[in-house]
Amino acid sequence: MDENTFERVKFRENVLRLQEEIPKLVEKGQLGKLNCKTMHYFSPQRDGYTIYGREFWAEKGSIIVGKIHKYSTINFIMEGSAFVSAEYGNSHIVAPTIFISPPGAKRALLVEQDITWATVHLTKFNNEADLEKIEDELIAPSYDSLGLLASISQLRLRDCV
């Protein structure tokens, strides 16, 4: 499957633009500051790896743009609901539900009802002191770092060469 279709690249371009605009809207008072809580959970290490769980709570009305995940992730929606936009489709998620997101996933959410969302990852690190290392391991700094295009102009250049 081509990961750089017009529709996917257009989503990436739009979600990055939204991510840039949110702080500006908050600064202007046109959007409330995000009210959220994050908890971290770690299993004992086995064969050099730890199961890392990240629980995120956000209140109704929140607009959230997530990070780019390098690997597939197991997602647990434990309470609440949200409208979700992702390059692989738009959906209305309602707790309780479990799903697996693909590598390269980045989502934009509009929280409809206070939501608790947990993700599960495999990591080499095993405590909160290592959160920066965990993020480096699991989160991509850009679409480009995964070989994915993030603007229509890149897509057009690639197709013309």
Tell me what you see in this structure.
- By secondary structure, this protein is α+β, with helices and mostly antiparallel strands.
- The chain starts with 5 loop residues before the first helix and ends with a helix.
- It has helices spanning 6-27, 131-138, 152-160, and strands at 36-42, 50-58, 63-65, 68-69, 73-86, 89-94, 97-101, 107-123, 139-140.
- Strand 5 (73-86) and strand 6 (89-94) form a beta hairpin.
- It has 3 helices and 9 strands; from the N terminus they run H-E-E-E-E-E-E-E-E-H-E-H.
- Strands 1, 2, 3, 5, 6, 7 and 8 form a 7-stranded antiparallel β-sheet that branches.
- It has a single domain (6-147), classed as Jelly Rolls (Sandwich).
- The protein is globular and about 45 Å long.
Topology:
Elements: H1 6-27, E1 36-42, E2 50-58, E3 63-65, E4 68-69, E5 73-86, E6 89-94, E7 97-101, E8 107-123, H2 131-138, E9 139-140, H3 152-160
Antiparallel strand pairs: 1-2, 2-8, 3-8, 4-9, 5-6, 5-7, 5-8
In short:
This protein is an alpha+beta fold and 161 residues long. The chain has 3 helices and 9 strands, in the order H-E-E-E-E-E-E-E-E-H-E-H.
Number of domains: 1
Tally of helical segments = 3
Topology pattern, helix = H, strand = E: HEEEEEEEEHEH
Which CATH first-tier class would you pick? Mainly Beta
Q: End-to-end distance, in Å?
A: 21 Å
CATH topology name: Jelly Rolls
SS elements, strand count: 9
- The dominant shape is globular
**What is the mean pLDDT?**
93
The helix-and-strand class reads: alpha+beta
Approximate strand percentage: 35-45%
Low-confidence stretches: none
- Report the helical percentage: 10-25%
